[in-house]
Amino acid sequence: MQILLFGLRTHEVIEKTSKLIIGADGAHSSLRNIIQQQDRFSFSQKYIEHGYVELIIKPTEGKLLDMNAFHLWPRRTFLMIAIPNPDASFTVTLFMSFDKFKKLNNSKLYLQFFDENFPDAINLLGAKQITEELPLKKPRYLVSIYCRPYHFEDKFLLIGDAAHAMVPFYGQGMNAGFEDCTVLNQLLDLHNDDFAKVIENFTNVRNEDARSICELAMYNYKEMSSYTLNKSFRLRKCIDELLYSFMPEIWIPLYVSVTFSDMKYKKCIENRRWQDKVIRTMLWILSILVITFSFIYYYLTMNNV
User: Fold this and answer.
1) 49-93: per-residue pLDDT in tens?
2) What is the pLDDT of residue 293?
3) Sign of CA dihedral 103, 109, 110, 114
4) pLDDT, position 243
């Protein structure tokens, strides 16, 4: 195959030839656009209604926060997070619907918005950043992409965001791309570097896990923005942590399995469903016991036993 490379700096077009092209060229992959023209290639993309803007907490103010924590401001329909950097600064990201961003069209409205929703963050960010810099920022979009297969014959292969771009709420986009490389390397070892067999198997091995992490990323926005405010959710977290502390090899919470283990993403979801079933069964048994003992106590009391 002939490849034309365009140098961004030199504006020079370079011709190359290759038997195989692996496309790791992002959510708007040029290679994927070419493969889409072939038969039996499934593709879908979904832009969510929320966009985001980034702000910064400078090191002088960042020292007031815990550098070993992920800071979260959940507000049901929107969300703000702060992630620590090595220099004691924090990268702050505000996620909100594009309609909401559009309504906050001047400095006064943005300051009022922060005063009502994030009053503790005003001094951290500085009123100047909120009133002068933030209104000039254009919210960026968030997209989730699904396609199948990841290859065309033995000539093209997609990995990373080119194959499965996801929203950033689980922080797994880059990690999923690295896992693609790991899986690809394992398949090369398995098939003795026979790329024709490897790239065909890659879709079968990797596709369901990629779809699963895309779904988990969408779910985690609801968890961070809304579910964390629910008492039932916080109770579930306490149960997870308690069981995990006693049975770390058996009971692995969803976030731990996704972020701190090599468990396949599809298996993470299956593990969570199993845990939900166990907890529902435990609650059902507990409810039966409470009702039974309440009935016995009532019977004994009424009969003066």
Assistant:
1) 999 999 999 999 988 899 999 999 999 999 999 999 999 999 999
2) 87
3) negative
4) 94
12: confidence class by pLDDT, cuts 50, 70, 90: confident
Q: Are residues 198 and 271 in the same domain?
A: no
Choosing from 91, 110, 136, the residue where a domain stops is 136
The domain of 41 spans: 2-47+142-225
Are 221 and 146 found together in one domain?
yes
Distance (Å) of CA 87 to CA 53, 59, 119? 21, 6, 24
First vs last C-alpha separation in the chain: 91
> Containing H/E element for 72?
strand 71-74
The per-residue b/e assignment along 262-299, b for 16 or more CB within 10 angstroms, e otherwise, is eebbbebbebbeebeeeeeeeeeeeeeeeeeeeeeeee
Q: How many residues does the chain have?
A: 305
Residue 243 within any structural domain of the chain: yes
Which residue's structure tokens are 């909100």? 96
pLDDT digits (tens, 9 = 90+) for 173-194: 999 999 999 999 999 999 999 9
Q: Which of 225, 256, 277 is the last residue of a domain?
A: 225
- Closest of 199, 217, 214, 208 to residue 158, by C-alpha: 199
What are the distances in angstroms from CA 86 to CA 62, 83, 90, 168? 11, 10, 9, 21
Co-location of 191 and 259 in the same domain: no
Do 172 and 213 form a contact (C-beta atoms < 8 A)? Answer: yes
Distance in angstroms (rounded) separating the CA atoms of residues 268 and 257: 6
Nearest to 211, CA basis, from 152, 300, 157, 145: 145
